[in-house]
Amino acid sequence: QVQLVESGGGMVQAGGSLRLSCAASGRTVYAMGWFRQPPGKEREFVAAISWMNSNTNYADSVKGRFTISRDNTKKLLYLQMNSLKPEDTAVYYCAADRGFSDNVVVTTETEYDYWGQGTQVTVFS
């Protein structure tokens, strides 16, 4: 009942910026987040945001460089990525929780119900 579509990935030089978007369609989703999967690695948590009041949480590796936000009227989720490093190279996925919550931030991958197809981010030095 929910589709998530990421966009905005691409190739960028180290130190540059990208903004990822995730468009949601279908029923309302509540807590949302971003995860990434580097080549040859497992998927890892990046950032999460609550449905209301924009409570957020970030992985230590991106704290201070990435910003997660959302526009519920447009059903869009964003990830602003600044000061990008080669270590940020990965396929980035957005995720959504179907269970109602307002101020809850979900950081555990297994608690999410819906996933996008992913968008590639490549950072070169």
What are the SSEs and their pairings?
Elements: E1 2-7, E2 10-13, E3 18-26, E4 32-37, E5 44-49, E6 56-58, E7 66-71, E8 76-81, E9 90-96, E10 114-115, E11 119-124
Parallel strand pairs: 2-11
Antiparallel strand pairs: 1-3, 3-8, 4-5, 4-9, 5-6, 7-8, 9-10, 9-11
Descriptive overview:
- This protein is an all-beta fold and about 120 residues long.
- It is built from no helices and 11 strands.
- The chain has strands at about 1-5, 10-15, 20-25, 30-35, 45-50, 55-60, 65-70, 75-80, 90-95, 115, 120-125.
- Strands 2, 4, 5, 6, 9, 10 and 11 form a 7-stranded mixed β-sheet that branches. Strands 1-3-8-7 form a 4-stranded antiparallel β-sheet, with no helix packed on it.
- The chain is globular.
Q: What are the key terms here?
A:
125 residues; mainly beta; four-stranded antiparallel beta sheet; 0% helix; globular
Please summarize what this structure is.
The chain has 125 residues and is mainly beta.
Taking all Cα atoms into account, the compactness measure Rg is 13 Å
**Largest sheet data:** 7 strands, mixed
Spans where pLDDT lies below 50 across 5 or more residues: none
Which shape, going by the Cα principal axes? globular
What is the averaged pLDDT score?
Answer: 97
* Topology, number of strands: 11
Q: Estimate what percentage of residues fall within beta strands.
A: over 45%
The helix count comes to 0
H/E element order: EEEEEEEEEEE
- Secondary structure category: mainly beta
How far apart the termini lie comes to 41 Å
Estimate the helix proportion, in percent.
under 10%
